[in-house]
Amino acid sequence: MRRDRQGDPTVTSLATIPNTKVRTAIFPVAGLGTRFLPATKATPKELLPVIDRPLIQFAIDEARAAGIERMIFVSHPSKSAIERYVHTDTDLSETLRGRGKDSIADALDAAALDPDEEQVHFVMQDEPLGLGHAVLCAAEKALPGPVAVILPDDLIMGETGCLSEMIEAYGRAGAGHMVATMEVARDEVSAYGVLVPEGEMTGNVLKASGMVEKPAAEEAPSLQAVVGRYVLDGSIFDDLRHQEPGLGGEIQLTDSIARGAARVGLCGFRFSGSRFDCGSKAGMLRATLAYAGQRDEFQQVLRDHQPLALAAE
User: Fold this and answer.
1) Cα–Cα distance measured from residue 236 to residue 99, given in angstroms and rounded to the nearest whole number
2) Most buried residue, 28, 83, 87, 209, by most Cβ within 10 Å?
3) Which helix (H) or strand (E) is 196 found in, with range?
4) How many angstroms separate the first and last alpha carbons of the chain?
């Protein structure tokens, strides 16, 4: 597995070539997870489990299913546990097999990223300078063409992965930047980037002229909120290099997407799955219950606790 420290994210990226094949996925995982302290004091939030499956595993599996060739994890030096997790652990596998637990070892080996078979890079974001800065840290390692960005704490469950749906639609959408969107209540828009739409939704795609980061409810241009999946034209790196700090003094990815919208086009994509904000405790609980509902072994537990939940209301 290749690990690189990104000392200066202003290095010129690989030239963008005119194609729509998405080969790279960027996983921004450098955040400190303060909303889950003290649990995240020693365990990165991306490794927090939804029952027995860490959030980062959902994201990796979604990228694999979408045919991603190269995965770039933008991490922080204090979160080395993520690198240990995603890498194949040969010693653990051999120990499990020595104890006759072959099925568990097989599952762990299948979940891990094998550097001999898959392109995996870790780069460091030493300072919390925003999501846009995190994406820029991956520029030097990205393959030519458009790139995907997956935020692991935005968990989207569905029969088909959100990124697979987006990539399938991307080539015919006629826009260089595509963002996953969902409709939210007006009193919730201030927590999201929001699309400035052009016309009506066509199928699952909504053309847009721009985006606004966390607008006040009364000023929001729509109720189409952007959530943690993006397919972005390769020019996003050049726009990020020239992006001035925005909200909170950070380099906002939303601002650079909006900046390039007139040049490469922008659209929102309405995905079919259910989205859970696992950056919040309530969202993590909802995701856990939803995932438990998909597994036979937990049906009795859910039935036993349903009366208690209703009584609490």
Assistant:
1) 49
2) 28
3) strand 193-197
4) 49
Beta strands 53-54 and 177-183, pairing class? unpaired
Q: Where are the domains of the chain?
A: 2-295
From its phi and psi, is residue 27 left (phi > 0), alpha (psi between -120 and 50) or beta?
beta
- Using an 8 Å Cβ cutoff, are 46 and 54 in contact? yes
Q: pLDDT by residue (tens digit) across 165-197?
A: 999 999 889 899 999 999 999 999 999 989 999
* Token output for 36: 């889950």
Handedness of CA 273, 87, 48, 43 (dihedral sign): negative
Cβ-contact 137, 149 below 8 angstroms: no
Q: For 246-281, what is each residue's pLDDT tens digit?
A: 767 788 898 899 889 999 999 999 999 999 999 999
CB 195 within 8 A of CB 268: yes
Query: Regarding the domain with residue range 2-295, which homologous superfamily does it belong to in the CATH classification?
Result: Spore Coat Polysaccharide Biosynthesis Protein SpsA; Chain A (3.90.550.10)
Whether the full predicted model's pTM is greater than 0.85, yes or no, is yes
| 48: its two tokens | 């927090």
107-125 per-residue burial string, b: 16 or more CB within 10 A, e: under 16: eebeebbeeeebbbbbbbb
Which residues have CB under 8 Å from 12's CB, separation 6+? none
